[in-house]
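Lecture 7 notes. Example A: sequence first, then its structure tokens.
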Amino acid sequence: MIKTHAAIGAKMLSELPIEQQELPLVKVASEICRWHHERYDGTGYPDKLVGDEIPISAQVVSLADVYDALISERCYKKAYTYSEALTTILEGQCGTFNPILIQCLLEIADTIKTELRDISLAQEDKYIRSMRNKIDYDRLLTRKRCSSLSRLQSYGEV
């Protein structure tokens, strides 16, 4: 199942109405869905595309996806440090990527490192909790019920 998700996602988008399929955003989304696990040397899946046969949108997401997977903690592994993740990618341990994209990654490496240092997971969690606490769900739900009731009363349906 894990290696079929790319094709399944692309198929889902191909089943949209034709006028939606033609939208540029949907075309790019479809490329990303189908080919984000392809590798520049042809060892990826689902179609074993090689080099520039892989749309650049999928190549960029593929590299970002690998980087994110490396620096993120999972139930089966600890998060890599920024330097470990970069080294792992540069050594080709996660597959082969477009050399131009690798060069771009190296050019922004210091920026990524700085941004990661500035935004920790704990800060993100704190921010999310803070935003949730600011939303008064009871008031929102009550207001919606009251608004619906008022509309019904004005139409004489209650």
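Example B, a different protein, same format:
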Amino acid sequence: MAQVAADIEPTVEERNARLVAETKRQEIQDACNKLTEGLLKKVSDPFSDLIIKLTELRRNQEDLLNKITTENNRADYQEAIAAATASSMQSTNDRMSKLKKRADKLSQKKTTEDTVAAEKRERELQRERLLIARPPPEQSVETSPTTTEAAKE
């Protein structure tokens, strides 16, 4: 039996050694957990503030981006209006130039027609003057030799 007890004792000793090792391991694990929690507390407070500040910064950047986008869209709209206005003004200018040329041509045509009509009236008046019967020139009793000679010719 002494032999059996000797065989059992190493097993009990092994069990005790295992229990001691397990207890130490558990104590080390607990110590590590406590150290980790303490370290996280120390580090997490500044990081929490940093996260809050970064979130605020991101929100401000998004607001700024939205404002810039709005201003950019407004500028694009104003450029489009300016381009449309310039195009409209050019079109109006072209039409005005064409109308002015047409008015000048019509004015020249009217002036020419008026001139032609005036010349025609003048010719008609001249013709009427030539066609109006005139009394024959009165011959005087005394005729000069130059007048009779001119009449013969």
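Note on Example B: Residues 128 and 134 are 12 Å apart (CA to CA). The chain has a mean pLDDT of 86.
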